[in-house]
Design brief:
The complex is a heterodimer. Chain A is mainly alpha-helical. Chain A has 24 helices and no strands. The chains are: A mainly alpha, B mainly alpha.
Chain lengths: 497, 187
């Protein structure tokens, strides 16, 4: 390695004080041979260093650092005391926290705590009912479509669809919104359960009514309507879950619209015979749901009838309640229930129905409809095109299933089917009567009354209604005559005089 | 130093005996005032005692000690408004021109009266040559020749690059060579 003159100058001091490595030293010494002036300078510096080495050294004055030593002893004592003193709380705490073992333990405690809290308060999404309901949600539209297309029973579990009729009362709901419906339900007690699985009926039959007798019927109906879906398909449900009043996903799916719940509440008092003017549960039914509305029909005009009809279509939901969800979809589901073929899985789920029946409140037999009951108020006009017989039957079956009716006798079942068909026919006739009265087709209305008069259960009501219909017809004809007289009068203009 | 921090005062005794004289010579040749040098030596070691906890073990104690001493010298010279270069052969007493000087304090173990007389002249010339050096060259020369610090350590104490230290050292040697040329052949 050959160094330049500049590099030799830079390394001169290092060479003088022997701070070069062997290679650098050899390179520097070879450079000194090439640059004699640099070698002379190096020699001069060496002599200067040797001269400077003779520079004398002054002795430290004695006792100069005695004061410093005293201070050092004091500080050393303080340091020793600090070293012997146990660390403070925060010092120990910080030392403890900084240890990895403590961090691991703290993390474990946090994880366990979160787990305990999670287990104690599981989120709603982890609700077993909700999880169990998911397949039902998935199969319900499919079953409805299948029934609609084939006109037969859906392949889905019949029990899964069971709660639907319970909450169905929001649309029309003749069972709830008129005395006729209550009477029909009472008559159908113990009658046909056309679509209910036999094993399910048996299990429901075992169910003893254990609900307290003094419980308000309104609350009973509410709880019944909610218990049924919560027990659907599960025979291992805890009893406390049944009593839970919180609306679950089941409730929302079974009764998607608020009026359905209200109608369900209204239907139960009607079934227990407590509904009527002044009855505890009548407040939810509205004025048009009782027999008092007969006077409205007799004395009111067309507008009043329409208003009453509109009110009746919203029966159960109160005056301010919105109209229920579209009827067709629900009705389709309702039709599926009676003709569903129970499978083995359904049989297992029916055990849940058994449990539900055990917890169901006792259902009193509804009294027969009063003789002086007003005209039958039917549901909304929009549902008039539905098959009344199927709807009534399915509704009755569902109510019976929810309330723990148990009768698998064929004769009783046939009787129930017959009564259901009759009730459906009655309902249809009363709907036609309403339409004719509203359109002032008096002759057609009287013809409907004649048909209703042939039905024994409707005789008293028809007889009570005929005078009212006659008065209304007379009033309408009188009004029409006055109108014609007015139009026939000549104009009385003074200018002609 | 670690022993002193652990509470052993005797450790500081060892440190003071090892570095006391060197620090005193360094400060004395920087401030050229024996009384001020003694005060600065005391202040330097007091700071070592009081700031012992701030000492970082990864640095060399010598470097830390000379850094404190150098700062003491700079502060003292600033307080004096100007740097007084007092010749070491100046009489210690103002009223005694023929009295003892700083050179009399020099410890000389070389025997022989003749040599002692020659040495006194040589040392006087050397001290005068040092006094003529700029402060930055003198401190580098003193720390390297008298205290034996390496250029890297000097650079750390002074706070300048190592090459700058070497340059200052070379300038100091050239300046001293001019002042001590007459003694070059004798040594």
């Amino acid at each position: 390695m050959k160094l330049t003159r500049q590099e030799l100058d830079d390394l001169l001091v290092d060479y003088l004080y022997d701070e070069l490595d062997d290679a650098q030293r050899a390179a520097f010494e070879s450079g000194l041979e090439e640059h004699p002036e640099l070698a002379a300078e190096v020699e001069a510096h060496r002599q200067t260093r040797s001269v400077a080495a003779g520079l004398p050294s002054f002795a430290l004055p004695p006792g100069l650092l005695d004061g410093v030593m005293a201070e050092a002893e004091h500080v050393a004592a303080a340091n020793a005391a600090a070293a012997d003193k146990p660390p403070g709380f925060f010092a120990r705490l910080s030392r403890l926290i900084l240890q990895p073992a403590f961090a691991s333990a703290a993390l474990a405690v946090v994880v366990i705590g979160v787990g305990v809290i999670y287990m104690a308060n599981p989120p709603s999404s982890a609700d077993p009912d909700s999880q169990r309901l998911e397949p039902v949600v998935a199969t319900r539209p499919t079953a409805a479509h299948t029934a609609e297309k084939k006109g037969g029973a859906p392949e889905g579990p019949a029990v899964a669809n069971a709660p639907e009729p319970l909450a169905e009362g929001g649309e029309g709901a003749p069972l709830a919104d008129d005395g006729q419906g209550a009477a029909a339900l009472g008559e159908a007690d113990g009658a046909a359960i056309s679509g209910l699985a036999a094993d399910e009926v048996e299990e429901a039959e075992v169910a003893p009514p254990e609900a307290p007798a003094d419980a308000p019927p309104k609350v009973e109906a509410k709880e019944t309507s909610r218990r049924a879906p919560s027990h659907r398909g599960s025979k291992r449900e805890a009893p406390d879950r049944v009593a839970d009043d919180r609306p679950s996903i089941d409730d929302e799916l079974v009764a998607p619209a608020p009026p359905k719940v209200a109608d369900d509440l209204a239907a139960k008092p009607a079934a227990t015979g407590t509904t009527g003017p002044g009855a505890p549960g009548a407040g939810n039914l509205g004025s048009a749901s009782t027999g008092d509305t007969a006077t409205d029909y007799a004395g009111g005009g067309g507008k009043k009838q329409d208003e009453a009809r509109r009110t009746s279509s919203g029966v159960g939901s109160g005056a301010s309640a919105p109209s229920p969800t579209p009827a067709p979809s629900t009705n389709k589901v309702l039709r599926e229930v009676p003709i569903a073929v129970p499978s083995e899985e359904d049989a297992n789920r029916a055990v849940g129905t058994k449990d539900r029946a055990k917890t169901a409140p006792p259902v009193e037999e509804p009294p027969p409809a009063p003789e002086d009951a007003g005209p039958v108020r039917t549901g909304s006009v929009e549902t008039a095109d539905e098959a009344p017989a199927e709807r009534a039957a399915s509704r009755r079956v569902s109510v019976e299933r929810a309330e723990g009716y148990s009768d698998d006798d064929d004769a009783e079942r046939a009787e129930r089917e017959r009564q259901a068909a009759e009730a459906a026919r009655v309902e249809e006739l009363w709907k036609r009567y309403d339409r004719y009265v509203a359109s002032e087709r008096w002759s057609d209305a009287e013809e409907v009354l004649d048909q209703l008069d042939d039905i024994p259960s409707q005789v008293a009501r028809v007889r009570a209604l005929r005078p009212q219909l006659a008065r209304r017809r007379a009033a309408a004809e009188r009004a029409a005559g006055e109108k014609q007289e007015t139009t026939k009068q000549p104009a009385t203009d003074s200018t002609y005089k | 130093m670690e022993r002193f921090l652990s509470g052993r005062a005797s450790a500081f005794q060892v440190l003071s005996e090892r570095h006391g004289a060197r620090i005193y010579n360094f400060i004395l040749r920087q401030v050229r005032d024996p009384e001020l040098a003694r005060d600065l030596v005391q202040e330097t070691f007091l700071r070592v005692v009081r700031n012992a906890k701030s000492f970082k073990a990864q640095s060399k104690f010598t470097t830390w000690l000379y850094t404190i001493a150098r700062n003491q010298c700079i502060d003292a010279l600033r307080r004096a408004k100007h740097r007084r270069h007092v010749p070491l052969d100046k009489p210690l007493s103002k009223h005694d021109d023929g009295g003892a000087t700083l050179l009399d304090m020099v410890a000389d173990d070389r025997p022989g009266q003749a040599s002692q007389a020659r040495d006194r002249r040589f040392v006087s010339a050397l001290e005068k040559a040092l006094a003529t050096l700029p402060d930055e060259q003198r401190e580098v020369f003193l720390m390297r020749e008298m205290e034996g610090l390496k250029f890297r350590e000097i650079a750390e104490v002074v706070g300048i690059p190592e090459n700058t230290v070497k340059s200052r050292m070379r300038y100091a040697l050239e300046a001293l060579r001019g002042h001590l040329a007459e003694f070059a052949d004798s040594y």
